């Protein structure tokens, strides 16, 4: 390595890979990224409480939390991919495919089925990452393509109909039927994953390297960050989270269908990640505030009903929220790196 390369590395490393426990994108978020997700959720919750007080007093918060569980899990996976400056349009389809595979295999293999599904969905995500990292296919185009592939596989695997859990579904169903503070374990599963990802990003070199890629991939490469491996890891984590979402879907519904619960979670999951303070341009993420992003997205249909907006306009609300949040988080710096 030349003298110039050595000097560049010495200068770049302290900025991109901070000392242990000093991750800028998590610790020094400031402004919108620190309190925005919480403020948005509380503001909408106050509106709902004023307009429909019976809902809040009748266990409404538990309903919001339980319905947000699959959204939260998918949003956490999406946030990890967004953090490295990419996007995963296929993780909701992977989650639904995982739910179908779980419904099909719970009977034959019983307790091993969730593990098999998680291994499969993690592998699906890793394949996305490998193609992105080594074939240099832009993530939007890549995952748009694999979205169609996974949807087709789900249709074939399910026979274009609803797949019901035939037997051995008690262990999975208990994740929804049991809980803490009347909130199902499916939601707390998402909270635990958020905490684990927060620790990964804040206290490990791997996590800091992933954030460095999102902030400035060119500088990360010159600083000897293993960008390809970390991109693969980000997509693998997205696949793993999608598998957990599939388990949550089966726990709640006891069945899976290409057009049933979970088939329309792509937009809500992306919205939850962005509302949770994740920057779509990469390098800024806090898994803990993504929790509030998911709760907000789950609360939106209730809020729109409370203020008299037709249910058919909910997609319009999601779209408007995404546009507003992207405008707040989008980096205007140009980059030659393929995202």
UniProtKB/TrEMBL annotation:
Stated name of the protein: ABC transporter permease
Taxonomic placement: Bacteria, Bacillati, Actinomycetota, Actinomycetes, Micrococcales
Segments passing through the bilayer: 32-56, 62-82, 89-109, 115-133, 140-159, 179-201, 232-253, 265-285, 290-309, 315-331
CDD domains (alphabetical): TM_PBP1_transp_AraH_like
GO molecular function annotation: transmembrane transporter activity
Membrane topology recorded in Swiss-Prot or TrEMBL: Multi-pass membrane protein
Organism: Cryobacterium flavum
UniProt entry keywords in alphabetical sequence: Cell membrane, Membrane, Transmembrane, Transmembrane helix
Pfam name, any one: BPD_transp_2
Subcellular location: Cell membrane
GO cellular component, one term: plasma membrane
UniProt keyword Transmembrane helix present: yes
Predominant location: membrane
